[in-house]
Amino acid sequence: AQSVTQPDIHITVSEGASLELRCNYSYGATPYLFWYVQSPGQGLQLLLKYFSGDTLVQGIKGFEAEFKRSQSSFNLRKPSVHWSDAAEYFCAVQPPFSSNTGKLIFGQGTTLQVKP
Amino acid sequence: DGGITQSPKYLFRKEGQNVTLSCEQNLNHDAMYWYRQDPGQGLRLIYYSQIVNDFQKGDIAEGYSVSREKKESFPLTVTSAQKNPTAFYLCASRYPGLDSGANVLTFGAGSRLTVL
Protein backbone atom coordinates (compact mmCIF):
# COMPACT_ATOMS: atom_id res chain seq x y z
CA ALA A 1 0.00 0.00 0.00
CA GLN A 2 1.11 3.52 -0.71
CA SER A 3 2.06 5.24 2.51
CA VAL A 4 4.45 7.38 4.48
CA THR A 5 6.13 6.00 7.60
CA GLN A 6 7.90 7.63 10.49
CA PRO A 7 9.56 4.72 12.31
CA ASP A 8 10.28 6.60 15.53
CA ILE A 9 7.27 7.52 17.64
CA HIS A 10 9.29 9.26 20.33
CA ILE A 11 12.87 10.55 20.40
CA THR A 12 14.78 12.18 23.25
CA VAL A 13 17.97 14.14 22.67
CA SER A 14 20.09 16.40 24.83
CA GLU A 15 20.17 20.09 24.13
CA GLY A 16 23.03 20.85 21.76
CA ALA A 17 23.11 17.34 20.33
CA SER A 18 22.39 16.55 16.71
CA LEU A 19 19.03 15.27 15.55
CA GLU A 20 17.79 13.06 12.76
CA LEU A 21 14.14 12.15 12.28
CA ARG A 22 13.38 9.45 9.77
CA CYS A 23 10.72 9.37 7.08
CA ASN A 24 10.13 6.72 4.43
CA TYR A 25 7.55 6.67 1.68
CA SER A 26 6.27 3.98 -0.62
CA TYR A 27 5.14 5.34 -3.95
CA GLY A 28 6.12 4.25 -7.41
CA ALA A 29 7.10 7.72 -8.48
CA THR A 30 8.75 10.38 -6.36
CA PRO A 31 6.13 12.40 -4.51
CA TYR A 32 6.50 15.93 -3.26
CA LEU A 33 7.79 15.79 0.32
CA PHE A 34 7.24 17.99 3.34
CA TRP A 35 8.15 18.27 7.00
CA TYR A 36 5.82 20.06 9.41
CA VAL A 37 6.23 20.85 13.11
CA GLN A 38 3.47 21.10 15.69
CA SER A 39 3.78 22.63 19.14
CA PRO A 40 1.37 21.27 21.76
CA GLY A 41 -2.21 22.32 21.11
CA GLN A 42 -1.27 24.25 17.99
CA GLY A 43 -1.55 23.89 14.26
CA LEU A 44 1.18 22.70 11.92
CA GLN A 45 3.97 24.90 10.61
CA LEU A 46 5.86 24.07 7.44
CA LEU A 47 9.57 23.48 8.06
CA LEU A 48 10.69 22.64 4.54
CA LYS A 49 9.67 20.97 1.31
CA TYR A 50 11.22 19.07 -1.56
CA PHE A 51 9.86 19.22 -5.07
CA SER A 52 12.84 18.57 -7.31
CA GLY A 53 16.47 19.52 -7.87
CA ASP A 54 19.02 19.63 -5.08
CA THR A 55 18.36 16.72 -2.77
CA LEU A 56 19.48 18.62 0.33
CA VAL A 57 16.92 21.24 1.24
CA GLN A 58 17.18 23.94 3.86
CA GLY A 59 14.25 25.01 5.99
CA ILE A 60 13.38 27.33 8.80
CA LYS A 61 14.74 27.16 12.36
CA GLY A 62 18.02 25.61 11.20
CA PHE A 63 16.49 22.38 9.90
CA GLU A 64 17.48 20.58 6.74
CA ALA A 65 16.35 17.40 5.03
CA GLU A 66 17.90 15.09 2.50
CA PHE A 67 15.96 13.25 -0.17
CA LYS A 68 17.40 9.84 -1.07
CA ARG A 69 15.60 8.23 -3.97
CA SER A 70 17.37 4.90 -3.58
CA GLN A 71 16.13 4.60 0.00
CA SER A 72 12.73 6.27 -0.51
CA SER A 73 13.60 8.47 2.42
CA PHE A 74 13.39 12.13 3.39
CA ASN A 75 15.07 12.43 6.78
CA LEU A 76 15.03 15.64 8.77
CA ARG A 77 18.19 16.83 10.50
CA LYS A 78 19.44 19.58 12.76
CA PRO A 79 23.07 19.91 13.86
CA SER A 80 22.35 21.30 17.33
CA VAL A 81 18.98 20.99 19.02
CA HIS A 82 17.54 23.78 21.17
CA TRP A 83 15.06 23.27 23.99
CA SER A 84 12.46 25.15 21.91
CA ASP A 85 12.61 22.39 19.27
CA ALA A 86 10.62 20.06 21.52
CA ALA A 87 7.46 19.38 19.52
CA GLU A 88 5.84 16.84 17.27
CA TYR A 89 7.18 16.47 13.75
CA PHE A 90 5.24 15.20 10.79
CA CYS A 91 6.49 14.03 7.46
CA ALA A 92 3.97 14.41 4.64
CA VAL A 93 3.82 13.48 0.99
CA GLN A 94 1.80 14.73 -1.91
CA PRO A 95 1.24 11.55 -3.89
CA PRO A 96 2.28 11.59 -7.53
CA PHE A 97 -0.35 12.89 -9.94
CA SER A 98 -2.55 14.32 -7.19
CA SER A 99 -1.76 18.00 -7.62
CA ASN A 100 -5.34 18.83 -8.58
CA THR A 101 -6.68 17.74 -5.20
CA GLY A 102 -4.06 19.20 -2.90
CA LYS A 103 -4.27 16.16 -0.66
CA LEU A 104 -1.36 15.38 1.61
CA ILE A 105 -0.71 12.06 3.30
CA PHE A 106 0.84 12.37 6.74
CA GLY A 107 3.05 10.06 8.73
CA GLN A 108 2.18 9.12 12.27
CA GLY A 109 4.41 11.79 13.73
CA THR A 110 7.54 11.78 15.91
CA THR A 111 7.51 13.45 19.30
CA LEU A 112 10.80 15.12 20.14
CA GLN A 113 11.78 15.65 23.75
CA VAL A 114 14.86 17.76 24.55
CA LYS A 115 16.79 17.16 27.76
CA PRO A 116 18.55 20.12 29.40
CA ASP B 1 -1.77 39.39 9.05
CA GLY B 2 -3.32 36.73 6.86
CA GLY B 3 -4.12 33.38 8.32
CA ILE B 4 -6.67 30.77 9.27
CA THR B 5 -8.91 31.19 12.29
CA GLN B 6 -10.55 28.18 13.88
CA SER B 7 -13.18 28.42 16.58
CA PRO B 8 -13.89 27.41 19.19
CA LYS B 9 -10.52 26.31 20.54
CA TYR B 10 -12.17 23.83 22.90
CA LEU B 11 -15.62 22.31 22.57
CA PHE B 12 -17.49 19.81 24.70
CA ARG B 13 -20.42 17.85 23.39
CA LYS B 14 -22.87 15.41 24.77
CA GLU B 15 -23.45 12.20 22.89
CA GLY B 16 -26.15 12.57 20.24
CA GLN B 17 -25.52 16.26 19.60
CA ASN B 18 -24.29 17.80 16.39
CA VAL B 19 -21.57 20.43 16.65
CA THR B 20 -20.11 22.80 14.08
CA LEU B 21 -16.49 23.87 13.97
CA SER B 22 -15.70 27.15 12.27
CA CYS B 23 -12.83 27.78 9.86
CA GLU B 24 -12.22 31.19 8.29
CA GLN B 25 -9.29 32.25 6.13
CA ASN B 26 -8.23 35.63 4.76
CA LEU B 27 -5.45 34.29 2.56
CA ASN B 28 -7.57 34.31 -0.60
CA HIS B 29 -6.83 30.60 -1.03
CA ASP B 30 -9.19 28.61 -3.20
CA ALA B 31 -8.82 25.19 -1.61
CA MET B 32 -9.59 24.30 2.00
CA TYR B 33 -9.27 21.10 4.01
CA TRP B 34 -10.35 19.48 7.24
CA TYR B 35 -8.06 16.99 8.96
CA ARG B 36 -8.60 14.97 12.07
CA GLN B 37 -5.70 14.26 14.41
CA ASP B 38 -5.60 11.39 16.91
CA PRO B 39 -2.57 10.47 19.02
CA GLY B 40 -0.20 8.19 17.14
CA GLN B 41 -2.20 8.32 13.91
CA GLY B 42 -1.01 11.47 12.27
CA LEU B 43 -3.54 13.52 10.34
CA ARG B 44 -6.37 12.03 8.33
CA LEU B 45 -8.35 13.91 5.71
CA ILE B 46 -12.07 14.36 6.37
CA TYR B 47 -13.27 16.67 3.58
CA TYR B 48 -11.79 19.12 1.15
CA SER B 49 -13.07 21.84 -1.13
CA GLN B 50 -11.28 23.24 -4.13
CA ILE B 51 -13.81 25.92 -5.05
CA VAL B 52 -16.91 27.53 -3.63
CA ASN B 53 -20.03 25.35 -3.64
CA ASP B 54 -18.03 22.21 -4.25
CA PHE B 55 -16.44 19.71 -1.86
CA GLN B 56 -15.25 16.11 -1.83
CA LYS B 57 -15.02 13.39 0.77
CA GLY B 58 -11.65 12.53 2.16
CA ASP B 59 -10.58 9.28 3.74
CA ILE B 60 -12.78 9.43 6.86
CA ALA B 61 -15.88 11.45 5.87
CA GLU B 62 -18.48 9.26 7.57
CA GLY B 63 -20.29 11.13 10.32
CA TYR B 64 -19.16 14.55 9.13
CA SER B 65 -20.61 17.20 6.83
CA VAL B 66 -19.30 20.47 5.36
CA SER B 67 -20.42 23.43 3.33
CA ARG B 68 -18.54 25.97 1.22
CA GLU B 69 -20.84 28.90 0.54
CA LYS B 70 -18.06 31.49 0.69
CA LYS B 71 -14.44 31.35 -0.35
CA GLU B 72 -13.33 32.41 3.12
CA SER B 73 -15.34 29.89 5.13
CA PHE B 74 -15.38 26.09 5.39
CA PRO B 75 -17.33 24.95 8.48
CA LEU B 76 -17.29 21.32 9.60
CA THR B 77 -20.26 19.68 11.32
CA VAL B 78 -19.60 16.65 13.46
CA THR B 79 -22.87 14.77 13.49
CA SER B 80 -24.26 12.28 15.97
CA ALA B 81 -23.46 9.58 13.41
CA GLN B 82 -19.74 9.98 14.08
CA LYS B 83 -19.00 7.13 16.48
CA ASN B 84 -15.81 8.45 17.99
CA PRO B 85 -15.70 12.23 17.57
CA THR B 86 -13.28 13.11 20.36
CA ALA B 87 -10.21 14.43 18.53
CA PHE B 88 -8.22 17.47 17.50
CA TYR B 89 -9.51 19.01 14.27
CA LEU B 90 -7.32 21.02 11.95
CA CYS B 91 -8.41 23.23 9.09
CA ALA B 92 -6.01 24.11 6.30
CA SER B 93 -5.95 26.03 3.06
CA ARG B 94 -3.77 25.61 0.04
CA TYR B 95 -1.34 28.00 -1.48
CA PRO B 96 -0.90 26.90 -5.05
CA GLY B 97 2.85 26.94 -4.76
CA LEU B 98 5.54 28.46 -6.89
CA ASP B 99 6.31 25.06 -8.41
CA SER B 100 3.80 23.59 -10.76
CA GLY B 101 1.52 21.10 -9.08
CA ALA B 102 2.93 21.49 -5.61
CA ASN B 103 0.60 21.93 -2.68
CA VAL B 104 1.69 23.94 0.33
CA LEU B 105 -0.86 23.86 3.14
CA THR B 106 -1.33 26.53 5.77
CA PHE B 107 -2.95 25.31 8.98
CA GLY B 108 -5.13 26.88 11.61
CA ALA B 109 -4.46 26.41 15.33
CA GLY B 110 -7.04 23.64 15.65
CA SER B 111 -10.17 22.86 17.63
CA ARG B 112 -10.28 20.18 20.31
CA LEU B 113 -13.61 18.40 20.55
CA THR B 114 -14.43 16.26 23.56
CA VAL B 115 -17.53 14.14 23.80
CA LEU B 116 -18.78 13.71 27.34
Quick structural summary:
Chain A is mainly beta and 116 residues long. Chain A contains no helices and 12 strands. In chain A, strand 7 (56-58) and strand 8 form a beta hairpin.
Describe this structure in words.
Chain A is mainly β. Chain A has strands spanning 3-5, 10-14, 19-21, 24-26, 32-38, 44-50, 56-58, 64-68, 73-78, 87-94, 105-106, 110-115. In chain A, strands 2, 5, 6, 10, 11 and 12 form a 6-stranded mixed β-sheet that branches. Chain A has a 4-stranded antiparallel β-sheet with strand order 3-9-8-7, with no helix packed on it. Chain A has a two-stranded antiparallel ribbon with strand order 1-4. The radius of gyration of chain A is 14 Å and the shape is globular. Chain B has no helices and 11 strands. Chain B has strands at 4-7, 10-13, 19-25, 31-37, 43-51, 54-57, 64-66, 76-78, 87-95, 104-107, 111-115. The radius of gyration of chain B is 14 Å and the shape is globular. The relative contact order of chain B is 0.32. The model of chain B has no long low-confidence stretch (mean pLDDT 91). Classes of the chains: A mainly beta (116), B mainly beta (116).
Write down the overall mean pLDDT of chain B: 91
Work out the radius of gyration of chain B: 14 Å
Element order of chain A: H for helix, E for strand: EEEEEEEEEEEE
What's the count of strands of chain A? Answer: 12
- Euclidean distance between termini CA atoms of chain B: 36 Å
Shape by Cα distribution of chain A: globular
How large a portion of the residues of chain A is in β-strands, by DSSP E? over 45%
Helical content class of chain A = under 10%
SS-derived structural category of chain B? mainly beta
Helix count of chain B equals 0
Layout of strands and helices, then pairs:
The complex is a heterodimer of chains A (116) and B (116).
Chain A: E1 3-5, E2 10-14, E3 19-21, E4 24-26, E5 32-38, E6 44-50, E7 56-58, E8 64-68, E9 73-78, E10 87-94, E11 105-106, E12 110-115
Chain B: E1 4-7, E2 10-13, E3 19-25, E4 31-37, E5 43-51, E6 54-57, E7 64-66, E8 76-78, E9 87-95, E10 104-107, E11 111-115
Parallel strand pairs in B: 2-11
Antiparallel strand pairs in B: 1-3, 3-8, 4-5, 4-9, 5-6, 7-8, 9-10, 9-11
